[in-house]
Design a protein that fits this description.
Shape: elongated
Largest sheet: 3 strands, antiparallel
Order of helices and strands: HHEHHEEH
Length: about 120
């Protein structure tokens, strides 16, 4: 489903969602961290550090640093792939799933408030 927004509306939506997150004390994720988190939750697994780095066109250390932050917030989990010990598998958590669902709800709510 395509949604037609003018650039000013799209930016206002982004601003309103960001303000909502700040006002409600949600974890302060960078745009990169949020992109990684949404990729983990919206794209089908499995997810690996190597795969995420390739998908987002960043280095593996960039992914690792982001996962460190998100792991401390219990938004994702990590474990070694038993089939290939070189790979680190990134898992979803209940806390992370609830965060992503709530974030989606906030986007919908703020989009409904946009002036036409």
């Amino acid at each position: 489903m395509a949604v037609a927004l003018r650039p000013s509306q799209a930016l206002r939506l982004w601003q309103q969602v960001a303000l909502h997150e700040v006002e409600n004390g949600m974890p302060d994720l960078s745009t990169r961290q949020l992109s990684i988190l949404l990729t983990i939750y919206l794209d089908p697994p499995p997810h690996t550090v190597r795969g995420l780095a390739s998908r987002l066109n960043v280095s593996k250390p960039v992914i690792t640093r982001a996962l460190d932050t998100m792991g401390a917030l219990e938004l994702v989990s990590r474990r070694r792939d038993e089939a290939d010990r070189r790979n680190v598998l990134i898992g979803r958590t209940v806390t992370g799933a609830l965060f992503v669902e709530r974030f989606g709800d906030a986007v919908i709510a703020k989009a409904a408030e946009l002036p036409t």
